[in-house]
Amino acid sequence: MKTFAKFLGLAVVLFVAIALAVLCGDYGPWYFAWLVGTTMIILIAVASGVLFDTQLETQKKGS
After folding, report:
1. Which region holds residue 55: left if phi is over 0, alpha if psi is between -120 and 50, else beta?
2. Got the DSSP string for 36-58?
3. Which of 16, 28, 47, 60 is 20 to 30 A from 1 via CA?
């Protein structure tokens, strides 16, 4: 039953993805690039913040 639930969930995700692709039409690649680009910017900003905090903690310990 657990496996069936996974397949059902994946089927729903696939259906939604296909429906969005059909609705977007020619604008699909633009929306995809926008989503991927926004995600990457957020991930890079978070990683930079973590590195900055780590550098500050290292400086405080060394002082």
Report:
1. alpha
2. HHHHHHHHHHHHHHHHHHHHHHH
3. 16
Quote the Cα angle for 11-20-44, to 5°.
Answer: 95
Task: Give the C-alpha separation, 53 to 23, whole Å.
Answer: 43
Domains: count for the chain: 1
Enclosing domain of residue 38: 2-62
The Cα 43–Cα 60 span in angstroms is: 26
20-57 pLDDT, tens digit each: 878 878 887 888 889 899 999 999 999 999 999 999 99
